[in-house]
Design goal:
The protein has 2 domains: 137 residues, Alpha-Beta Barrel (TIM Barrel), CATH 3.20.20; 169 residues, no CATH class. 12% of the residues lie in helices and 42% in strands. The chain contains 4 helices and 22 strands.
Length: 331
């Protein structure tokens, strides 16, 4: 994502910009046409309503840039424009005047605009520079080889040992979307392996379904996030996006709406894949907590030694949730 200086609002200071827009700049606007060295490269529009956005659509796929100002800042028309230009070859540059607008524009529809236009030497410029850096980090290749943006490889793990009677602070992760009957999250006690925890989409004899809930285990545990990093359950907060995984390994991002932490009894499962990749997971000792198997979800209270569940192996060592190349031993 580029950062442009708006010369219509003042001269450039000491900061470095990818483009300068306005009189004497690398880009100029005449009669709402954007020029670069005398060549028309884009269309400018002052957006006052949805009709103005629709007026830009004929230029999508034709011009290199759509440059938009807003009479009153609004995310909806910007998102509509970003969606329309996605994959077309036409880029969107948006002028922002409020620092709070920078992250919204930078990550609109998880894609964002292609350039932020700011008045030089303002707080908005500073916020925009931070958003540019955050966008670059977010668009970097995934740090987990097994976790792409939309798929993980689930493999079988054999339960080698089960022990109960462990009291811990259990974290329920309540999401803002409903889970499908074969969806859940990936949780565990180490980055060696994370296990496919079923969402509470199935009612039990005494408890109704909670199709938005992941009963993820005690506070020390890991959960896989939508960006391929892990977080401790104790670190989670509303708005964080976790990786929701289906039985075929498909991944989608869903935001957390609420966390519910209560002291509950837990079971400790020790598992391995082919006798290696040994790992453990603590889960609440309740019939509503289930792990996914090749035949579907099974309650942890019904698991026996020798049973097979599914998970993701060899996620590598972590530091603050990020994969690192140095050796990390977790037991």
């Amino acid at each position: 994502m580029e950062l442009w200086a708006d010369l219509r609002q003042g001269p450039v200071g000491r900061g470095q910009f990818d483009q300068t827009l306005g009189p004497g700049g690398s880009l100029t606007i005449e009669n709402d046409v954007v020029y670069e060295q005398g060549t028309a490269v884009g269309k400018h529009m002052l957006v006052r309503s949805g009709a103005d956005v629709e007026g830009l659509l004929p230029f999508v796929g034709v011009l290199s840039w759509l440059v938009v100002d807003f009479e009153d800042w609004s995310m909806i028309p910007l998102e509509n424009l970003v969606a329309a230009c996605d994959g077309s070859g036409t880029k969107v540059a948006a002028r922002i005047t409020d620092p709070l607008a920078a992250p919204g524009a930078a990550f609109a529809l998880q894609r964002g605009v292609d350039a932020l236009i700011v008045a030089p030497g303002t707080a908005t410029e500073e916020a925009a520079r931070i958003a540019v850096e955050q966008r670059a980090e977010a668009m970097a290749p995934s740090e987990v080889e097994q976790v792409s943006s939309d798929q993980v490889e689930l493999r079988p793990f054999v339960v080698e040992e089960i022990s109960g009677g462990h009291i811990g602070d259990r974290v329920c992760v309540d999401l803002i979307q409903r889970l499908a009957s074969d969806e859940g999250g990936l949780v565990g006690s180490s980055a060696t392996a994370l296990f496919h925890l079923h969402g509470e989409t199935t009612a039990s004899t005494f408890v109704p379904a909670r199709p938005f809930r992941l009963n993820a285990g005690p506070v020390h545990g890991y959960i896989l996030m939508s960006d391929g990093k892990t977080k401790y359950l104790s670190e989670l907060k509303a708005g964080d996006e976790v990786a929701v995984v289906s039985s075929d390994g498909a991944v989608r991002a869903v935001a957390i709406g609420r966390l519910k932490i209560e002291r509950r009894p837990h079971v400790l499962l020790s598992l391995s894949a082919n006798g290696v990749d040994k790992a453990t997971v603590f889960l609440q000792q309740a019939e509503t907590v289930r792990l996914m198997t090749g035949a579907g979800p099974v309650a942890v209270t019904e698991l026996e030694v020798g049973a097979t569940v599914r998970g993701v192996a060899s996620l590598g060592g972590r530091h603050i949730g990020k994969r690192i190349g140095s050796s990390v031993v977790e037991k």
